[in-house]
């Protein structure tokens, strides 16, 4: 558990100026922590934020590990049954019992994530609990492969843990009853789940940022926005946030960035007007960047608060143009692009992948099925027995 | 991140849901404490207190909040590896061989408030502040610990249980059964701890929940709608005995060594109305911390019995 | 004390203390007349003359034979009647502002400190009496140059000392008041106890049949002893606090403590965002869901505050807005 926080420069224009005089007057353990730094301290940032490349590598590693195990098992199965296997059976094994690719795994995870959402909604759980369920579920399958843990065995477990973690306690028995499951099945993987979540349980979902921006837009565009319209936007965005949680967006962007992207998908103009007024450079200050920067620094040193002078509290809230607007806009549009690209998995695709996942772990069943198929075609009966197919609910 | 990195040498405590061991981190040789959570005993899977403790400690990183070094699973038990903290404020207050000065009290209050301020800054309510949960490090730092009752600040429509905080440190709104309380409950607890540090005996030691109200209001006055709007809407309010609020002079007599600004801070932390009770920011900015004596350097405070 | 260096040319002017030697205005005639001197030569000139002569810039001293060039802003009111004293005081002030070490700077070594004080006295003497003026000035300048930081620190420190002093006075005043209160309380208790004891003894003697009188009296006295402890205990406690008085302790701990206390108090030790990207302005929000709750009795009584809700969601709206995962987590 590394608690170090990378202090790479962010899109804030001004790094905290560490002039010598300011430093030497501070106690030994003095450390400035901005709200952004606070987010950097969160386990969501430390453990569950990745670049696209890192995310891909992570999935690849998980996938390759599982493939290794499956292939080894298959090899052993073939070797053990070498004498009895026909050429046709070997061929079927090679084609149909092959392990899932990384993309196929992701399809299955996405499909089941949606299922988590539907079931949690069906259980009438609060929005945040649903969001946490989805998040837990998806995080579990970053380090675990669907070939190692059948996703359907984790659906209830993640929802149950999310309930407890979000202070929405339901006893396991009544939960089992409501969810039409049973105690043992729900609790079986709970430890494994918590461990895979790296014991990081607190999530920052974008719902609160949405509420915050809803207020701040009203302030910045005071008198210029229709309040009823704002209410509608708010409701639509809330739904879209839950959809976004079903994608990889949450690993790649921070909640405020995702929120702005989602609002701008609803009303691009609104967001660009808001951000322009909020973070756009004041034209009068635009002329002399250099001097502007210096003044700012001086101001910041003077403001180094806390000498306990109460008058300073007032100017604490003066508007700060600390965000590089263009960079922020770029981030938002990247986020929008990814959100628009994400598409849901069809049930057919999911069924196909689930079947493949099942057969590669259970080659003997695949062979039984082949045998039956051959028999039934000999009997001129084209119906295959549906009972042996892995079930995948709609 | 595994059990093999740590030793458990001595059992130092056992609670309802955990056993605490002293041990060493093998890589560094540092003393550590391992809190082993008896997960197997819970029929609802992982226990809520364990979940809370893990959830919040994972996020908090502050010199005055206990440091979670590591977590691991072993034999189906959850083990929290925590920094080693040899004593706590309750032990220090009770040990009459330990002398402490107003500057020491100020230092402890400062560290406690900074720790709790950080907890609040992260939108977390501690809900069980008491001397026993303010641990002290070998170098004298106060560490806010035990997040088994903590929870995130609720959304506006969520209901909270008022059955939190150890009785003597329970804020009046909790005694009344409030369901939408705020950070103010933690501030009240710190206010009671402050009083206890000055008196060296518990300030509001109620014998049971009913008696707690009696003791609280006898010491600080029964709240009225005037100072605390809608307090009379709580069920049970009408049955209360009415006591007057203590005058400043009465407080001066009770807290004989307290300066005026110490009393001001205490009065505002023990404000009946939770809406106007000071928050941790106001407390930290109070005159008490600016006036002399300056808070003691934590490392200079005696926290162990002095053999005479 | 000799004033020879400036007195030579002074004599002919100095016969009338209340007359400006330049314009000959007399204080008897104009009671508002104020005399100023300039530390360059300490020649007394009235305010009007200073205004007139030096308003346009530096000029030569109007005293006959004095070739000092004087600036208007250096003129000051004469505090001491004797210009010689005035001059020495000024020199001392100037020198001690630079040579401002205290015994703490010598880690309490009295010998070193005394030696240092002697050196400083030499400098004052030299400047006052015109001995090796140039060389001495040079010494002063060099020292100032070399010890700039130390000098500034000590200035800070003496400011603090003054502040500490007044706070300590305040503290002691408060404590004395408390002591008085307690003592009065104890007196009253004593008086009350005496009365009570008298009555009690009479009562008991009347009700007891033939018991030993001395036993009864002893018994009552013991009860009184137990009774009067509360206020006395507090007084003892207070005396203990005064004995351990942190103000005295702080002063005895020397340099280390001083350095620490020169760091300004920082309530949050940096754990606070100084430039939050928002401002809570409840007057501008239309947020029916939250605003509805604000009116509910159970919410009001619980201590519910809409500003807490707003502050929270706004913080979360901007918390992490500036973190770029693709760069920071790369």
From TrEMBL, chain A:
Residues 1-21 have a biased composition (Polar residues). Residues 1-33, 286-320, 370-394 are annotated as: Disordered. Gene3D superfamilies: Cyclin-like. Residues 114-195 form the Cyclin-like domain. GO terms for cellular component: transcription factor TFIIK complex. Keywords: Cyclin, Kinase, Transferase. The keyword Transferase applies. Residues 22-33, 294-320 have a biased composition (Basic and acidic residues). CDD domains: CYCLIN_CCNH_rpt1, CYCLIN_CCNH_rpt2. GO terms for biological process: DNA-templated transcription; regulation of transcription by RNA polymerase II. GO terms for molecular function: cyclin-dependent protein serine/threonine kinase regulator activity; kinase activity. InterPro entries: Cyclin-like_dom (IPR013763), Cyclin-like_sf (IPR036915), Cyclin/Ssn8 (IPR043198), Cyclin_C_2 (IPR031658), Cyclin_N (IPR006671), CyclinH/Ccl1 (IPR027081). Belongs to the cyclin family. Cyclin C subfamily. This is Similar to Saccharomyces cerevisiae YPR025C CCL1 Cyclin associated with protein kinase Kin28p.
From TrEMBL, chain B:
It is an enzyme of class 2 (transferase). Pfam families: Pkinase. Gene3D superfamilies: Phosphorylase Kinase, domain 1, Transferase(Phosphotransferase) domain 1. InterPro entries: CDK, CDK7, Kinase-like_dom_sf, Prot_kinase_dom, Protein_kinase_ATP_BS, Ser/Thr_kinase_AS. GO terms for biological process: positive regulation of transcription elongation by RNA polymerase II. Keywords: ATP-binding, Kinase, Nucleotide-binding, Phosphoprotein, Serine/threonine-protein kinase, Transferase. The keyword Oxidoreductase does not apply. Its EC number is 2.7.11.23. This is [RNA-polymerase]-subunit kinase. It comes from Maudiozyma saulgeensis. The lineage of its organism: Eukaryota, Fungi, Dikarya, Ascomycota, Saccharomycotina.
From TrEMBL, chain C:
InterPro entries: MAT1/Tfb3, MAT1_centre, Znf_RING, Znf_RING/FYVE/PHD, Znf_RING_CS. Residues 133-188 form a coiled coil. It is found in: Nucleus. This is RNA polymerase II transcription factor B subunit 3. It comes from Maudiozyma saulgeensis. NCBIfam families: cdk7. It holds the Pfam family MAT1. One of its GO terms (molecular function) is cyclin-dependent protein serine/threonine kinase activator activity. One of its GO terms (biological process) is regulation of transcription by RNA polymerase II. Acts as component of the general transcription and DNA repair factor IIH (TFIIH or factor B), which is essential for both basal and activated transcription, and is involved in nucleotide excision repair (NER) of damaged DNA. Keywords: Coiled coil, Metal-binding, Nucleus, Transcription, Transcription regulation, Zinc, Zinc-finger. The keyword Zinc applies.
